[in-house]
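[agent] plan:
  1. take the single chain provided in the ticket
  2. run structure prediction with default settings
  3. attach C-alpha cells to the ticket
  4. add a short note for the reviewer (M.T.)
[agent] executing step 1
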Amino acid sequence: MQFKSVLVTGATGVIGTATLSVLREEGYNVRGLSSGDADLRDFQAALAVMEAVRPDAVIHLAARVHGLMGNVRAQGEMFRDNTLINMNVIEAARVAGVRKIVAMGSVATYPDGVPLPMRESDMWAGAPHGSEAGYAHAKRAMLAQLEAYQDQYGLEFAVAVSTNLFGPHDRFDEVRGHVLPSLISKFHRGVTTGEPVSVWGSGEATRDFLFSFDAARALRVLLEGGDGLYNVASGSHITIKEVALEIARAANFTGEIQWDRTKPDGQPARAYDITRIAALGWAPQVPLQSALKETFEWYRANLDRVRR
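[agent] step 2 finished; step 3 output follows
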C-alpha cells in the first residue's frame, strides 16, 4: 500500500460510496468528504479540509452532475461550478502536500465524431458534443491543470475517463438525471401505478454502462499504479432500448413502453478502448443484468431516502 491516508471527495454519491467501501475492504485509512462538509467551490473551504486531513492521496469525485437534459439546460452553471470545484481541490491538495490525485473524468470530454472505440489519445482531437460542452470543458480544464501541476510541482495524477456509471446511492432524477437511474425510477413507478413508461429518444443510441463497484475497483488500481488518462468502461455497448428492456425485466414490468422521439438521443454511439487500464490488471466483474437487478432492488428498498 503506497498511501497511508486517502481523502475521497464526493463521497456520498454513486461512485463515492462504492469507492469508500472498496478502499476500506483493502485496509486503507480513508475519509469521505461530502458537499455538506465543505463547499468546494470556495477555495478557503477546500484548503481548510486539506490542511485538517493532510491526506497522502486524494480521489476526487466531487462534481456537479446532470444527465443529458440537465447538461443542455445549464451549460454555464455546469462549467462554472465544476471548474471552481476542480481548480480549488487540486490547488488545495498541492498546498497541503498531497502526493497523488486520482480524479474522475468523463467520456463527455471526448471530441464529437471520433472513431469508435474512443482511445485516450483522441482526447484533444476536436470539440466535445455540444449537448454537454459546459461540463465537458470543465473536465478538460481539470486534466490540463493536473498535467501542468505534474510538470511544475511533481504532483502525481491519474484521470479515470468514466463511462455511464450506475449503482446504489445514485441520483434517481427522471428529468435531469442520467439514463439508467432515471429509467429505474420510471419502471418502478410503472409497476406501482400500472401506467406506461415513457423513454426519451428512439432507443437506438448505444451506450457503455459500468457498475459503480467495478468503477471503484478501477479507481483503486489507478491509485496504486496509474499515471495519466485511462478509459474506465465495460468495453462493450448496448442500445438504450435493450437496457430499458433489461430494467423492465428486473422490475417485473409487463406494461407498455413508449418511445418519446421528441426528446434527444444525444450522441448516437459510444464505445471505449479499455486496453490501457486492462494492462494494470483491471477488468469489470459484475454482469450488467446482475448489476441492474441489484441497483433496482436497492432503489426499491430505499425509496424513503433516495436522491432525486
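[agent] step 4 note for reviewer: The CA atoms of residues 114 and 122 lie 7 Å apart.
[agent] ticket updated
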